[in-house]
TrEMBL record:
General function of this protein: Catalyzes the phosphorylation of ribose at O-5 in a reaction requiring ATP and magnesium. The resulting D-ribose-5-phosphate can then be used either for sythesis of nucleotides, histidine, and tryptophan, or as a component of the pentose phosphate pathway.
EC main group: transferase
Region annotation Disordered: where it falls in the sequence: 83-102
Name of the protein in its database record: Ribokinase
Catalysed reaction, written as an equation: D-ribose + ATP = D-ribose 5-phosphate + ADP + H(+)
Broad class of the protein's primary localization: cytoplasm
EC number: 2.7.1.15
Location within or outside the cell: Cytoplasm
Composition bias, Low complexity: 86-96
Catalytic residue list: D253 (proton acceptor)
Description of how the protein assembles with itself and partners: Homodimer.
PANTHER family per the UniProt record, alphabetical: RIBOKINASE, SUGAR KINASE
Notes on how activity is controlled: Activated by a monovalent cation that binds near, but not in, the active site. The most likely occupant of the site in vivo is potassium. Ion binding induces a conformational change that may alter substrate affinity.
Length: 323
């Protein structure tokens, strides 16, 4: 089975539920608290694994209780995490950094506000030989922008050299070096990230710009669905599945993880993305639209439940909805 390598952030999500966001200087009561293993990288890895994908996770945590909890959840989800480094093995001055944390306020409407403290994620400034080996045996590499850009660039270069299909969820939007996006086969921003990357507020036009040069682009629009584009041309608008939103914290990560899991399931075993010249590594329009359909359903399930990794559906749940 094709392997998916996720190079990304690992954080402990500290979630407070409340009626609304506080005003500056205001103290208010919340209605609930939970601590959930997360981070965009871990979330995407879990979402893919629950769809039956074979997943490797690469990143860095601290030598603390949060790091131990993150390793435990990866183990429980069947995700290989030999590539999850500890800051104790980091020779830099940042080796005392704790595991990253995300401080999340979720209001009753389901909207959220998030403050991320990178911690150990920022201490990963280069890939180990073992992490390189993991990328080189993967058919897909998934990245976000919550690690230092030098590490992302190194990972993309290794994946391109090995012929893997590369997927970028560009959150948060950061300054990217020249040529960075040329190494990406599929970019999956939301409409705000797409606008920041292109300067184009129209998500259709933004998708066209991001997909130029034989790249896939999927711009997610929340309840309005997603724009799917390839090589500078929009292929269509994939509709969303209407649900009552409870918590949007992990909806984007669920979409990306399930999307890639579905693509990996449909690719020939041992497939190397860049060996096929058509459709950015041999992925057809029909395969991409099918993967978007699965990802949309999975995202609708996630948004209807509280939490991050705790909200993500299994293969059986998504298949039952699509049956």
């Amino acid at each position: 089975m094709n392997r998916i390598a996720v190079l990304g952030s690992a954080t402990m999500d500290l979630i407070v539920r409340q009626a609304r966001l506080p005003r500056p200087g205001e103290t208010m009561s919340g209605s609930g608290f939970s601590a959930v293993p997360g981070g965009a990288g871990v979330n995407q890895a879990v979402a893919a694994a629950r769809l039956g994908a074979v997943v490797d996770f690469l990143g860095m945590v601290g030598e603390d209780v949060h790091g131990a909890q993150l390793r435990l959840v990866l183990t429980r989800e069947g995700i290989d995490h030999e590539g999850l480094e500890s800051t104790s093995r980091c020779s830099s001055s940042s080796s005392s950094e704790p595991t990253g944390t995300a401080h999340i306020s979720v209001v009753d409407s389901g909207e959220n506000a998030i403050v991320v403290v990178s911690g150990a994620n920022a201490a990963l400034t280069g890939l180990s030989r073992a992490q390189h080996d993991t990328i080189e045996r993967a058919a897909f590499l998934v990245l976000q922008c919550e690690l230092p850009v030098s590490v992302l660039t190194e990972g993309l270069a290794a994946a391109r050299s090995a012929g893997a299909f590369t997927v970028l969820a560009p959150a948060p939007v950061i300054a990217l070096p020249d040529g960075f996006l040329d190494l990406v086969d599929l970019i999956v921003p939301n409409q705000h990230e797409a606008a920041a990357l292109t300067g184009e507020s129209d998500p259709v036009r933004a998708a066209e710009l991001l997909s130029a040069g034989r790249t896939w682009a999927i711009v997610t629009l929340g309840a309005e669905g997603a724009v799917v584009a390839f090589d500078g041309a929009v292929l269509g608008l994939a509709p969303a599945r209407p649900v009552q939103a409870v918590d949007r914290a992990a909806v984007g990560d669920t979409f990306v993880g399930v999307l890639v899991a579905r693509l990996a399931a449909g690719a020939p075993r041992g497939w190397a993305g860049r060996a096929e010249p058509l459709r950015a590594g041999g992925i057809t329009e029909a395969e991409m639209i099918d993967a978007v359909r699965w990802a949309t359903v999975a995202a609708s399930v996630s948004v209807s439940r509280p939490g991050g990794t705790t909200s993500m559906p299994t293969l059986a749940e998504v298949a039952a909805i699509l049956a």
